[in-house]
Specification:
Four Helix Bundle (Hemerythrin (Met), subunit A); mainly alpha
Length: about 160
């Protein structure tokens, strides 16, 4: 029995789930809880997080120099793609904030706003998923398995923290 195909399928699904989880976390942060998304502190924290994640991957997975270069190139490309969508998201957040702070909540206006920006949200999610997929496929099978185990351990840790 060839176990590689099921492992790759599980790995792909897990990577997609991780992307979706990270997307929802960033959405919560963007709603204004914690540091404002356009503040210098937010960008500084995000930069520190990516550096920390890269260092952790290098250490935990014993990434080769070639893998490190490939992953950095993928991350740089994703950042460039994200920059093109940033202005649209700022506009959406401003309009959303106006609706949320209105005297009365206008459900129709919110639904229309969200529908108008749905293609942008989809493009952001697609970019994140592609990036995670590309990075995951730079890893060897053993590294992929180890990474999935680390992510599962992290998931359990966070679920325990929530209650």
């Amino acid at each position: 029995m060839n176990i590689i195909k099921p492992v790759k399928a599980i790995a792909s699904i897990s990577a997609l789930c991780a992307v979706m989880a990270l997307s929802s976390i960033s959405s919560v942060n963007a709603l204004g809880y914690g540091v404002a998304s356009d503040s210098p502190q937010h960008h500084q924290k995000r930069g520190k997080h990516s550096k920390h994640m890269m260092k952790r991957m290098i250490k935990e997975l014993s990434l080769s120099e070639q893998q490190q270069v490939q992953i950095k190139a993928i991350s740089t490309q994703a950042k460039a793609q994200h920059e093109t969508l940033r202005e649209a998201m700022k506009k959406f957040k401003g309009e959303e904030k106006t609706l949320l702070q209105a005297q009365a909540f206008d459900e129709q206006a919110y639904t229309s706003l969200h529908a108008a920006y749905q293609p942008i949200h989809m493009q952001i999610a697609l970019t994140r998923a592609k990036t995670k997929h590309e990075i995951f496929n730079v890893l060897t099978t053993e590294q992929q398995e180890k990474w999935l185990a680390l992510m599962e351990k992290r998931k359990e840790k966070f679920s325990k923290m929530r209650g």
